[in-house]
Amino acid sequence: MKGADAIIKCLEEEKVEVVFGYPGVAIAPVFNSILSSDIRTVLVRQEQNAGHAASGYARITGKVGVAIATSGPGAENLITGIATAFADSIPMVCITGQVDSRLMGSDVFQEADISGAVESFVKYSYIIRNPEDIPRIFREAFYLASTGRKGPVLIDIPQDIQNAQLEKFVWPKSVKMRTYKPTTTGHALQIAKVLTELTRGMMSGRLPKSMGFRSSAR
After folding, report:
1. pTM (2 d.p.)
2. For residue 9, how far is the Cα from the chain centroid?
3. What is the DSSP string of 171-206?
4. Is residue 92 within 8 Å of residue 118, measured between CB atoms?
5. Is the Cβ–Cβ distance between 46 and 70 less than 8 Å?
6. I need a labelling partner for 207 at 20 to 30 A (CA). Which of 45, 88, 166, 198 fits?
7. Residues 6+ apart with CB under 8 A from 214
8. DSSP 3-state assignment of 154?
């Protein structure tokens, strides 16, 4: 299985039904592979539209939105959509093509450090350097995007990794990340403090009683 085929397999494992994107040389293997799947591709006029469309899709459906773009200016056009998703806590996975691994850092045609460019407004960003890591990274990316405070995750994939062969595709059954343990339950003491302040606000007339709040709520 080629890396590009593994990427599409990962999207299928995550039950992705639609992706938004615009093809280019550095992401062509992925777009070629997606033709053999049942995943619907929405072709946009420009990559910025893909970012906002994936964000809108996530807002409406509650699912993780997926945007795909090529390297350099294609990836950079996703930045506004990524930043918006981060600010609004919208689950999104952005897949970007990249120049060959051996050429990265040499300022070749249409190379851009997209992972560095979005560092301050993504939950996490990946650069895949080994095709065997594709299943694990995609499993983690979707988990990160959809848990805790939801938000965008970037996966940057050099073209040679998309064309490389995997010895074996193994989809992780679970995600184990020592550095990521999101809080999913409320803090009882802090909630009690909020209730107290709301009660005081309504009793003093600073807050409207039409809020529907009851001081006996737990």
Report:
1. 0.84
2. 17
3. --SS---TT-----S--HHHHHHHHHHHHHHHHHTS
4. no
5. no
6. 88
7. none
8. strand
